């Protein structure tokens, strides 16, 4: 068993810390705060969905410097969503929280003839454009613009009401929003699902048949319940085929 004394805490910003020691316990007392482990390498002051936009950006910047802590599940979900893009064939696509490892590279979106917008909470990753967070929840696109939107390992952070409303505005009547969800309590998941539905989204929640990580789910949302059902069927078929291939 690893002792708390073996943990070497380095402050990244208020509320976000890096552990340069051995992988520590799930929770640890640091100075006067109780901290919670995240991805083995980090500790945070609260659950991920309670972090501020600034804390989220700082955590994600630091995480990008340590690719060794990012599990293969991250790439599995990206590849799954890329396959879903190919099946659904959108010509306009919004990625929320694209970071520095988006679902599609520029040449991949060009080959697919997709107008691809990468948004992120961190302005440094968008050259000041397409910032989408609790601090800046407006997109520069017309209503009903995007045929598809996606978020990969993003919704364990807080998804603000204004962001959800803006996403709803920008999704086309037949458009689909796909995301994966983990690290949220049942109460937090229910609250987020209620906001999505209250905004007007039809929402389906599918447990991950492969259980890539603990309590992992896929959320499929859109304005048209039939299109949401269709996308869910395609998604589950892709998961089944990819599982059979391995």
Descriptive report:
This protein is of the alpha/beta class. The chain has helices at 53-64, 72-88, 106-111, 161-170, 186-199, 225-245; strands at residues 9-13, 16-19, 27-30, 33-38, 42-44, 92-95, 115-118, 146-151, 171-181, 202-207, 217-222. The strands form 2 sheets. Strands 7-6-8-9-11-10 form a 6-stranded mixed sheet, sandwiched between helices. A 5-stranded antiparallel sheet has the order 1-2-5-4-3, with helices on one face. A hairpin with a 2-residue loop joins strand 1 and strand 2 (16-19). It is globular and about 50 Å long. The protein starts with 8 loop residues before the first strand and ends with a helix.
As a whole number of angstroms, the C-alpha radius of gyration is 18 Å
The count of β-strands is 11
The share of residues in helices is: 25-40%
Q: Topology as H/E string? A: EEEEEHHEHEEHEHEEH
How would you summarize this macromolecular structure in one to three sentences?
The chain is of the alpha/beta class.
Descriptive labels:
single chain, 246 residues, alpha/beta, globular
Walk me through the topology:
Blueprint: E1 9-13, E2 16-19, E3 27-30, E4 33-38, E5 42-44, H1 53-64, H2 72-88, E6 92-95, H3 106-111, E7 115-118, E8 146-151, H4 161-170, E9 171-181, H5 186-199, E10 202-207, E11 217-222, H6 225-245
Parallel strand pairs: 6-7, 6-8, 8-9
Antiparallel strand pairs: 1-2, 2-5, 3-4, 4-5, 9-11, 10-11
Helix pairs in contact: 2-6
């Amino acid at each position: 068993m690893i002792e708390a004394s073996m943990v070497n805490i380095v402050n990244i910003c208020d509320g976000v810390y890096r552990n340069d020691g051995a992988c520590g316990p799930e929770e640890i007392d640091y100075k006067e705060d109780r901290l919670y482990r995240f991805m083995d390498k980090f500790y945070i002051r609260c659950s991920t969905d309670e972090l501020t936009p600034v804390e989220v950006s700082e955590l994600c910047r630091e995480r990008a410097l340590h690719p060794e802590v990012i599990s293969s599940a991250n790439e599995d979900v990206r590849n799954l969503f890329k396959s879903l893009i190919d099946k659904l064939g959108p010509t306009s696509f919004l990625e929320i929280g694209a970071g520095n490892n988006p679902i599609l590279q520029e040449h991949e979106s060009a080959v697919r003839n997709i107008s691809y917008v990468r948004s992120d909470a961190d302005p440094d990753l968008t050259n000041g454009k397409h910032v989408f967070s609790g601090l800046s929840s407006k997109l520069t696109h017309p209503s009903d613009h995007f045929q598809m939107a996606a978020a990969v390992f993003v919704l364990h952070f807080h998804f603000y009401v204004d962001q959800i409303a803006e996403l709803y505005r920008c999704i086309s009547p037949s458009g689909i929003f796909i995301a994966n969800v983990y690290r949220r309590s049942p109460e937090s998941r229910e609250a987020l699902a209620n906001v999505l539905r209250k905004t007007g989204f039809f929402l389906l929640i599918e447990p991950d048949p492969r259980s890539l990580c603990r309590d992992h789910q896929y959320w499929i949302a859109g304005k048209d319940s039939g299109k949401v059902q269709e996308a869910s069927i395609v998604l589950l078929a892709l998961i089944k085929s990819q599982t059979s291939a391995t």
